[in-house]
Amino acid sequence: MNLTSFVFLAFCFITLIIYFIVPKKIQWIILLLSSLVFLFYDNFSLFTVFQALLILLVSYFGGRLIEKYRDTKKETVILLCSIAIILGLLIYLKYSNLLIITYNHIITLLGMSKKVELVTRVSLIGISYYSLIMISYLIDIHRGACKAQKNILKCALFMYYFPILPSGPFVRYETMEKELYKKHKFDYDRMCSGLVRMCWGFFKILVISSRVGYFVDTVYGNMSKFKGFFAILAALFFPLQLYTNFSGSIDVIMGVSEILGINLPENFTGPFFSRTITEFWRNWHITLGAWLKDYIFYPLLKSNFMQKLNKVCKKKFGKNGKKIPLYLSMFVMWLAIGIWHGGAYTYIIGSGMIPFACIFFEDNLAPLAKKINKKLRIDEDGFWYHLYQSVRTYVLFSFAMIFFRASSIMQGLRLIKRMLVFNPWVLLDNKTLYTAGLDMRDFHVMILSVIVLFIVDYFSKKINVREKLFKQNIIVRWAAIYILLFSIIIFGCYGLGYDATSFIYQGF
Amino acid sequence: MKKILKVIAFLFIFCLLWCCTFKVLWLEKASISTIYDEPKKSLDIVYFGASNAFVHFNPVLAFDKYGFTTGMAASGDQPVTIAKYLVKDAEKYQDPKLYVIDLNQYTLELDHYSEADTRNAIDLMPFSLNRLQAIDEMFKYIEVTDHYDPSKKLIEENKKYNYIFSFLKYHNSWKNISKDIFVGDTKYYKGLYFSAGTVKQIPVEKCEWPDEKQALVPEVETIFMDLINLIKERNLNVLFVIPVKSYVDPMYGVPKRFNTLIDIIKANNLDVINFNDVDELSIDFDTDFYNNAHLNAFGATKYTLYFAKYLKEHYDLEDHRQDEKYSSWESEYERFKKNFKKYTDIDYDDLLKEYKEKYNLD
Q1: Which of A355, A339, A346, A345 is nearest to A402 (CA)?
Q2: Omega before B250 cis (within 30°)?
Q3: Could you list the residue range(s) of the whole structural domain that residue B163 is in?
Q4: How confident is the model at residue B207 (pLDDT cuts 50, 70, 90)?
Q5: What stretches of A171-243 adopt beta strand conformation (E)?
Q6: Measured between CB atoms, does A491 come within 8 Å of chain B?
Q7: Domain assignment present for B359
Q8: Which tens digit of pLDDT belongs to each residue from A54-67?
Q9: Does residue A3 carry a pLDDT above 90?
Q10: Are both B19 and B61 inside the same structural domain?
Q11: Chain B contact for A497, CB < 8 A?
């Protein structure tokens, strides 16, 4: 179900009406039913039902058994088996081709010719999200952070809760338990706030992301024609497309969830104002980062193996030696981020290895940079230095995203090569600039809306913009909402002449 | 209660803004239907059909000559399925004394309509049940094709909801908004669209009208009979017309099918004029066409002079020339004359005098 389709709006409208009409006791059942409709809307078959049921049953019974056999050897066995089944299914559905490609590369290197054909597997929407969510559910029970849900249907609602299916965020049972099953009263102010958030999401997706996407897709799709500054612009625009698309869909579903009375954790906090790559990833896809830290990075760092390695490295390399287990754990975590994003090496490089390398160098070159700044008397707290750092972070992220967007590593390298052609005059020549998917008026709308986005994001870091808006008098408040609504209606890329907006993060 | 009132007020303002916005966004569309734009019950005649209607008949000239008002419910290559629904709307909005229906499209196949043809027709109509039914009927019979490649069917682009909710198509028209559409000179004069250009037609000799008949396309016949039934059911005063054409026009209807249509019309005791048989029109195939399908402003003047006189003589049409409520018709006629002079360098009054003397058209 496309988040910007009428079907989705109608679905939300009907769900909300029924949800607030029925007795509060059974509200969660309505949520479960609508979540099932959402889950199977595009892909209903015996196989998809099997996928959904398998993860649910493994998580539910796994959780119950972990509690039953607490503090026995069986507990660990059950936990590991449950995680293995969930991860196994996820790998089978999402990463078969990555394994096949790797296998074929090895076969080729060994000079053998028996290659394996790529496969097509149908998976349910959000499987990458709820698989990890259910793994964290089992681990949290094991850690004693939460209790296993006794009602399998309630467990199903936690797993299938429809707003998180398209693109997250990652939620924890511990927090969701308090939100999902309690009775929710209709709240007018909450509805207004949720609707405004949904509109802001639609603005990001339909007005900015789709428009930027035309430019990016045109350049990536026609690299022999577009070179130099076109390629640079495409590389710089893609993070904008990705951010507005991803955070826009998060805004839409957070808005829906807010109206329902169920608060979800924030996934973005103005990432483009970050001054370092480390800070950037703390503000980008926050819940994925938190999940990986809690369930991969820290457990690995604290593992017996790493502790032993720490001691060995300290002995051999002195003070700096303790950094080796840290970077090793970080490497594994970034590798996991790359793999999670998709079954292709482009994702592993774009969202895993390059960010890891950036953080590694950032961390190790920081003392040197500090020395240089001191010598040059650069004010590190000044506005211009902050701006420089934010621009630098954006450019580094854009560089990593070249591979994330490319259909293959070769295409990514080709784009980088095309960027080396010096032709800045294309930016000044209107006839040339407007040949890459966007005409002059579209370009102006894009620039204007990106400025609005940056202003809102800037203030969002300091204040709650919606709260501030609702405190204004009715004229200002309504004028702002009407401007937002009509910007979407008039300037949104939808309807005839536009392709259905694809959701970049919905594929994961 | 206060919150409910707030929601209602918010939605009310939203609807107002919506209407204003789309009024502006649609200024650029091919709006040539005057049945909705003119004041209610102010039109004496409504003229239906494809481009022949709004290119051939000059309502402002007819008004100047005889004082009756003619509205247009026409659009380029108007799909035949829509006529029935436009007639219903014309009755609702204008209740005219006479309905003039151009027959050209009824002799053609149903597979030549492009998206522009279907949209220009459907988008004339305001949102109503009638419009929904018109869309439904159009989808029942017509498969929209690509304008440049009729063999290509536009299935995805032409889903019903895209027609029902026109804003899905037109919200993007903001790109075409310019100062001209607010203050510029509109190209329509109470429905007339004129061209001053001339294209000599080959062969210049008028062909003989055949005596043979040819069956209509079965679906077209069904659609036409539906229209006839509606006319009879509502007891409407209708005059069918076969437009004057250059015979080399590839889109011109099959003359033998016109004969079949004439038979059906006469069998139902309705009136029809074949303007290809009317010598008094004095159409000059060298000078009176702007392409092989349409008369230019000179041919349209001859056609209007003859046809308006015929209408005045055969139907009881009121003269509104002294009525101040109709002053816009006079000013539009003046604007037309001014632009005619601008594009042809000929004074329109002098041209009318010449036609009166030369062809006895007055």
Answers
A1: A346
A2: no
A3: 31-336
A4: low
A5: none
A6: yes
A7: no
A8: 999 999 999 999 99
A9: no
A10: no
A11: yes
Which secondary-structure segment (H or E) carries B192? strand B192-193
Cβ contacts of B289 within 8 Å, gap of 6 or more = B198, B199, B200, B201, B246, B295, B296, B299
Q: What are the DSSP E strand ranges found in A62-172?
A: none
Q: Report the domain count for chain B.
A: 2
**CA distance, residue B185 to nearest chain A CA (Å):** 24
Length of chain A: 508
Name the residue in chain B with its Cα closest to that of A489. Answer: B171
User: Could you tell me if residue A111 is left (phi over 0), alpha (psi between -120 and 50 degrees) or otherwise beta?
Assistant: left
Instruction: Return d(Cα B78, Cα B51) in angstroms, integer.
Output: 8
Same domain assignment for residues B11 and B81: no
On whether both B36 and B139 belong to a single domain, the answer is yes
Spell out the domain ranges in chain A: 6-183, 190-264+406-507
Interface A:B, Cβ pairs < 8 A: 38
Lookup: tokens for B15: 């609807």
What is the Cα A20 distance to its own chain's centre? Answer: 30
Question: Is B21 in Cβ contact with A439 (below 8 Å)?
Answer: no
Q: Do both B21 and B160 map to the same domain?
A: no
Residue B212 lies in a domain: yes
Whole-number average pLDDT of chain A: 89
Same domain, B316 and B193: yes
Question: Within an 8 Å CB–CB cutoff, is residue B127 touching chain A?
Answer: no
Report the chain B residue with the minimal C-alpha distance to residue A496. B169
**ipTM > 0.85 for the complex:** no
pLDDT tens for each residue of B69-109? 999 998 888 899 999 999 999 999 999 999 999 998 998 88
A496: which chain B residues are within 8 Å (Cβ-Cβ)? 157, 162, 168-169
Listed range (A91-105, A248-262, A453-467) with the worst mean pLDDT: A91-105
Q: Which residue has the higher pLDDT, B201 or A495?
A: A495
B41 and B5 share a domain?
no
Whether chain B has a CB inside 8 Å of the CB on A441: the answer is: yes
Query: What is the pLDDT averaged over residues B179-196?
Result: 74
Nearest to A486 among B21, B168, B175 (CB): B21
**What is the dihedral sign for C-alpha A221, A225, A230, A231?**
positive
Pairing of strands B294-295, B289-291: antiparallel
Of B10, B21, B169, the CB nearest to A496: B169
Whether residues B79 and B6 fall in one domain: no
Contacts of B123 (CB under 8 A, 6+ apart): B26, B29, B166, B170
User: What are the start-end ranges of the H helices in A222-317?
Assistant: 229-260, 277-283, 286-292, 298-301, 304-317
Please give the full DSSP string across B88-100, using - where no structure is assigned. Answer: HHHHHHT--SEEE
pLDDT tens figures, A222-240: 888 888 889 999 999 999 9
Same domain, B196 and B278: yes
Q: Model pTM? A: 0.82
A319 pLDDT band, cuts 50/70/90, is confident
Inter-chain touch A439–B175, beta carbons under 8 Å: yes
* In-domain check, residue B355: no
B17 touches chain A (CB under 8 A): yes
pLDDT tops 80 at residue B146: no
Return the amino acid letter for B36: Y
In chain B, which ranges are continuous DSSP H helix? 2-25, 51-56, 59-66, 83-93, 115-122, 129-141, 160-164, 167-170, 179-183, 218-234, 255-267, 297-314, 327-344, 348-359
Residue type for position A496: L
The pLDDT tens digits for B208-245 are 677 788 889 899 999 999 999 999 999 999 999 998 87
In a domain, B348, yes or no: no
- Hey, what are A253's tokens? 């579903």
User: How far is residue A49's CA from residue A56's CA, in Å, rounded to a whole number?
Assistant: 11
